Amino acid sequence: MKKTYKIDVDCANCANMMEDASKKVAGVKDCVVNFMTLKMNVEFEEGADVKAVMADVVKACKKVEPDCEVFVK
Amino acid sequence: MNRKQKKMLTRILIAAVLLIVLHFLPVTGMLRFALYLIPYLVIGYDILIKAGKGIKNRQVFDESFLMSIATIGAFAIAIYKKTWDFDEAVAVMLFYQIGELFQSYAVGKSRRNISELMDIRPDYANIEVDGVLEQVDPDEVEVGSVIVVQPGEKVPIDGVILEGNSSLNTSALTGESLPREARPGDEVTSGCINMTGVLKIQTSREFGESTVSKILDLVENASSRKSKSEDFISKFARIYTPIVVYCALALAIIPPLFLLITGNAPAWADWIYRALTFLVISCPCALVISIPLSFFAGIGGASNAGVLVKGSNYLETLSQVTTVVFDKTGTLTRGVFEVNAVHHSEMDQVKLLEYAAYTESASSHPIAKSIISAYGKPLDRSRVTDIEEIGGHGIKAVVDGVPVAAGNDKLMAMLGIQHIDCHHVGTIVHMAVKGEYAGHIVISDTIKETAKEAIASIRKAGVKKTVMLTGDAGRVARAVAGELGIDEVYSELLPADKVKEVEHLLSIKSDKEKLAFVGDGINDAPVLSRADVGIAMGALGSDAAIEAADVVLMDDDPSKIAKAIRISRKCISIVYQNIWFAIGIKIICLLLGAVGIASMWLAILADVGVMVLAILNAIRALFVKKL
């Protein structure tokens, strides 16, 4: 399953680091962070609990870039 | 500028003024240090806080952390050496922030500019309720509802015109500036702007399924498919910072130790200073920002010209195309049959066409339709009587009391009328009036006006080989290819054969050379997906084409193919310029820094300068109008 989230981040390298960090989160199959459109496409693994996984993704992103925002609806 | 950026600008100005004042202040010693801390903290407090968080999260390669180390180190060296020259430490932080501000401003601005170019999203739809117009969310309009579009408004949802005449501006969709005329019964595509009259439109789709939604969805997700260059840069960025940091560490320790062992003065402060210079250049920002920005701008510029590219990867592949394979019907030709010529006619050609049109007036055959449309005047059905259709032969009828027969050579033979064979390519309708041969009408698929020019400009854009595939007869295919100047022709192909031909062409070229297939997207979806780049044209209103292709041309003008290739070439050359330029300057600065020629001043100026130039260069990819 794929979902798109709006994000807010200031620098392109930080966006890359968020992408790397999110990919390592359990339950995330793949993740693409698009700095230009400020969007994050997350592909979840089968049967993953989206809410819980996204909470981990946000935590992982905050760790590499404290100034970032991921808008989880 | 947003609030965050304005605040940063104020901080930069305050710090800059303080720095200049302090520079001329005749104070030395620790008092000078304390005074310099004021502008340093004004400009860099957030960086320091972020660096602190970085340490807590063990992010040692975080750029805030590295900038903090570099500037604090510069302070320490100035105190240790008792030069009391703190300009450098503050200036490095100051320039770093100026660079960040510029980056944030430029990216925000181009993000807005590009979104504006693609701004085709309608905000509302008008529905008439008891004679009063009411604005509703397009999402809420059901299929089959009647919406009203006033002059100056965008058509929000696909549909059919019930009432009203107008001209529609399709430039936001197709890049075509000539307005399109619209009459009752015409289908209209959402995203067009109604220019002159009020239109009542019956919607044929939901908003989410309408052309405008599909296009927006496509464009917004385009840059998520990353190109090889982008992948290269993110990999490079991942290793660049650690490598530079380790080099800095080595530079700070190894040379002084070596000097110490060999019995010289170790000059610790000098080598640590050089190591700190490395840290200043350790951020790969210029590269990391400018490459995706180039692609984003290229895709944005292209969609403004009516060329939708589904991802940066396709833009990159498109730039390497050396073979272009065309489908014939609908791509190079109009795909509609038209009267091309009237031959051997004793009477006035218009009169002959008139007879033909009346004879065929009751038929719904495409050939009949093309004759009727070539005649072009309204038909008065009472003038024609005794219509008799002879299957597989043609039609006999009486027009204005005169017996007329229109059909193929078999019909002429059946009626015992001597006919003249035609050497032209196409479908031939022989005519007999009053029992005598009256000439024949040639009907064929016509080549698009811009097709010949398009092939020439594709060649000029660097494509080496052009190939045409068609299900049509060999004679027709060769005639078209010859007229257009196409290198190779494969005719009488079934759809499955087309895939085989493309696979064959793919196998005989080298890996670096890419193959593009251009089709109208109606029945060539398998070929579109098999080619390196599938280009669908005339996609306005055709969902199948938008789904199957990698590059979508919104109108059916083949000259857009060359334009798409030129746009991609420009974008990719900008990408390469930025990669070489940014990496090159960084390496030169690192080398100069290592031998002690480049100071921290030079390092930060070069770093920020490269980023500014790379961003400005990237934005150039947006300007594609004159290509």
Summarize the structure in words.
The complex is a heterodimer of chains A (73) and B (627). Chain A is an alpha+beta fold and 73 residues long. Chain A contains two helices and four strands; from the N terminus they run E-H-E-E-H-E. Chain A has helices spanning 12-23, 50-64; strands spanning 2-8, 28-34, 39-44, 69-71. A four-stranded antiparallel β-sheet of chain A has the order 2-3-1-4. Chain A is globular and about 35 Å long. Chain A starts with a strand and ends with a strand. Chain B is α+β, with helices and mostly antiparallel strands. The longest helix of chain B is centred in the C-terminal third of the chain and has 36 residues, at 559-594. The radius of gyration of chain B is 35 Å and the shape is elongated. Chain B contains 21 helices and 22 strands. In chain B, the strands form four sheets. A seven-stranded mixed β-sheet of chain B has the order 10-22-21-20-11-18-19, sandwiched between helices. Chain B has a six-stranded antiparallel β-sheet with strand order 2-1-3-9-4-7, with no helix packed on it. In chain B, strands 12-17-16-15-14-13 form a six-stranded antiparallel β-sheet, sandwiched between helices. The chains are: A alpha+beta (73), B alpha+beta (627). At the A-B interface, helix 1 of A face helix 4, helix 7 and helix 9 of B.
